[in-house]
Amino acid sequence: MTGTVVKNLTDISMCESTTGWTNVGTGTQTVNDPTVFDAKEGTYCLQDYRASLGNRGAEWDFGAGSPIDFSNAVVIFWFAFSKKSFGANPMRIRMTDTSGNWSEWNIFSASGLPHPAWIPWVVKPTVLRDTGSGTLVLSAIRYVSWRCDSVTAKVYIYWDAVRYGTGLTIKGGTSDSPATFEDFVTAEATYAYGIVEKYNGVYYLQGKITIGSLTVDESTYFKDLNQVVVFKELYKTPSGFYEIKGQNATSGSGTTKIFFGESGISGCFIRASTSMKYKLTMSDTYITEFGFNGCTFVSADTIAGQVYSTLKTFTNCSFIGCAQMLPSTGIVTKCKFISSVAEAIRMDSVSHHITYCDFISCSRGVHIPNVETYSFNALGFTSCTFDVKNSSVGLVTVNYDQYCSPAPSTHEETGGGSTTIQTSVTLTVRHVKTGSEPTNYVRCSIHKQSDMTEIMNADASTSDDQNPGYYKASTSYTTTGIVVLVRAREKGYLPFEIALAIPAGGLDVTAIWIPDPNYA
Questions:
Q1: What letter would DSSP give residue 495?
Q2: How many CB atoms lie within 10 A of CB 289?
Q3: What integer pLDDT is reported at residue 215 of this predicted model?
């Protein structure tokens, strides 16, 4: 089973007839002869022809009582020409609201038309118009049209498959036959959505892509490797509109699993121009699993993850020229943040799972918005304007371990607070189970032996990389050489306790469990 593509688009006209279209120029509108020129979608397209110079165009009327809201939608026109012979004035898309206010956006001129064959052109009407009259009300659009002035004699203008909306959704697939980007291309070949095209092995996108279904009990398994995905640079589409988003129904047995790359490698290369940007949104907590492995993201807008889960990870990824990553407490490991234009990543909680990452030539490396003491584990900072941005109103303390290289040193305060950056070691208790009280409860604690000051008292919530099936609890501490008591307990076993001095490189204790002879 491969993926099923569903349009998040509404048909304006499939151009199988002239019904609904009004001529607004001096041309002659007719249905094409498919034996002479192929339609992009269906059997027919529409054509406009005039044997002499003059303005030409066609307008669609939604009706006085049924205006369309284009506030968060693009309009898509497919155009083709019999030849690249028309004047200097550009081809334009016009929208007119119910009060007669109108705006036009230039989409191309003769010199900017790559070739006369079918090309989908997209306009997001929230971008600055090129000309118009009055203030266009985007929530009340009555007419949409195309206009072209000064066309050279004997040029046919063809148009087809006119729609509006946001993009495409893909669902379905299994682990044996996952949904992939190629499924979009297969659907485009039949329906001509104009959202995803493929040239020379590269997928070009000009809309929002959603992965997963909101229908109860429908499952999605999307997985693709080593693909190049480029969001088209169209100045008629604003920065931040483009998006790849995961979703799943809030109830039922359906699952959504999304994988770009596998085992930390074979990821996808996804980019947009600096002026366009795109969002990657995986914040829907009903997503069952996601893994971005070995991916490269270039000029992304916000990248959103979610709360910690071993099934939801960013591993071995590179983020180049991107906006701030918002991982919540999710796993971000072995990643590189390069030339971030603002803050590279936000560390919302002391329970973060950002480890083994490098920040290179970023404006700001780690953004900390809340007062607390944070542990940096194997985070390196090179040539950043500021390694740490503290936007809180109080004291933020950063304890970095011996694996932070180069270690963080520079900081910025934007909320009136203060920042302390100091070296630390990691204290770890491993080889324990985890669960909830009272059935499978395990608690790990570390205290100073001298006065029983508490250093750590926590559940083991992180998978133990050295002991499969077990968990570990860790904390950062700034003092070495002192003797501490390490304790853990688990139902059915004698309490584990040992006294040790904290060495210079930190403490790593493996709990040993002896069955309790009195437990029944």
A1: P
A2: 16
A3: 97
Q: Of 314, 317, 247, which is closest to residue 284 (Cα–Cα)? A: 247
CA angle 372, 373, 375 (to 5 degrees): 135
Contact 170, 211 (CB under 8 A): yes
Average pLDDT over residues 53-73: 90
Q: Per-residue confidence at 307, pLDDT binned at 50, 70, 90?
A: very high
Kindly list the distances between the CA atom of residue 14 and the CA atoms of 31, 175, 324, 441, in Å, as whole numbers in the listed order: 12, 36, 41, 62
**Secondary structure (3-state) at 474:** strand
CATH architecture label of 10-163: Sandwich (2.60)
Instruction: Confirm or reject CATH 2.60.40 for domain 426-510, answering yes or no.
Output: yes
Mean pLDDT of 14-21: 96
Q: Where are the domains of the chain?
A: 10-163, 167-370, 426-510
If you ran DSSP here, which 8-state letter would residue 157 be given? E
Print the SS3 string covering 55-76: CEEEEEECCCCCCECCCCCEEE
Backbone dihedral angles phi then psi of residue 216, each to the nearest 5 degrees: -55, 135
**In terms of Cα–Cα distance, which of 293, 281, 271 is closest to 223?**
293
Closest CA to 50 of 33, 31, 27: 27
What angle (nearest 5°) sits at the alpha carbon of residue 270, between those of residues 74 and 344? Answer: 100
Token pair for 510: 């493996």
Q: Return the pLDDT at 439.
A: 46
CA distance 254 to 250: 9
